[in-house]
Description:
The chain is built from 14 helices and 12 strands. By secondary structure, the chain is an alpha+beta fold. It has a 3-stranded antiparallel beta sheet with strand order 1-3-2. It has a 3-stranded antiparallel beta sheet with strand order 4-6-5. It is globular, with a radius of gyration of 24 Å.
Amino acid sequence: MEITEEIRVAISALMENFWIVKTKQPDEYHAIKRNKTYVQQYFHNRFGYRLVDAPNLFKLEKIPYVAMSWMGIKFFKNKNTYSLFTAFLAFLEERSPEDLFLIATAADYIKSFFLADDSESFTLKWESHQHRSDFVDALQYAERVGLISRLDGNLDRYRDDEAVEVLYQPTLLAKHYLRFFTKPLAEFSKAEELLLDGWKEQKEAGPRENLHTINRKLFFSPVVYRDELTGEEKRYFSNQWRTFAENIEVHTDYQLEIYRGELLLIAEQRGTSGEEYPDQKAVSEIALHFGSLVRGKVLNMTERPDFSIFITIHEFNEWVTELQDEFRHGWHKNWRLRETEQLAVELLAFLEDWKLARYDEVSYSVELYPTIVRVAGEYPREFTVKMQGLEVDDDDNQ
């Protein structure tokens, strides 16, 4: 079958969005609908993924091979909000779009939900402003993603006053937020079981399992290092890498790049698919400069590292000091004024999210992966001469 541009649009839309709602993304919705059979088979065969086809909605249940820190809901500030949101999903499960409800009704349900829970991981204290605030955050997120519609009332006021009433209506989307599980969640004993559930019938050792696991690692990780692959996966990939590369290029906006011990997907044009590195954020610019600094140090080493560079956290902070001295004259104001310790913490967290570095809390060491020097940046000499000694007051893109 010829892979049309519409099929590529359908595949990209499902990969990059939590779901595709007809009223919100009509073009993508109809592209999926017209090519549903092919798209469904593509994701089932190559990833082991399930395509949900509900009224006016398509959703690809994208289950990663391993859970990573950046996969959380960025809108949530703490674990309590996740707990309250989960309880609210249980509340919505019992309601249809015709069942209007007040926030007090939802609050009473959630109080009972946690009273009936034997777990000691979360003790709900509704008199606590923080817990009510977390509940508000959970409802705001539910409204943002379309699980509920607010008909009347000011939700923010509920943080300070439990007597405030807000009227809501559930939507049809609420029934499809959670992925499908083959058994009740209470029967799972550990998080790893959640990742494997629904994949069991395909978890037989052999080519199909390797195909699924490698694709899940490639598409849900900034980079895959060869030591992250099992022996079976390495042998399978060695024989099938051309097929992988061709299939990825035909169906997506990415190209598979293999370099030494690294496998990664790259896009020829910025903004074509998903979240990219580097992006337009200021910390991404700083990471590029840090990559340039690390590259310079590698070139000056008498013995080049075979793979990663290992330094102590103290050395990492010293390198960040060098980074500030060399490059911060062109950074945005808020980043120029950061203390070295604060910048080091934020930069390291960013590098870890993109699998460019890893901090070991036991040995207090930082492992810098080779990918960090592959994308690096410096200021042109003309810019550097012009900017040094000048104050830049723009606060954009902080």
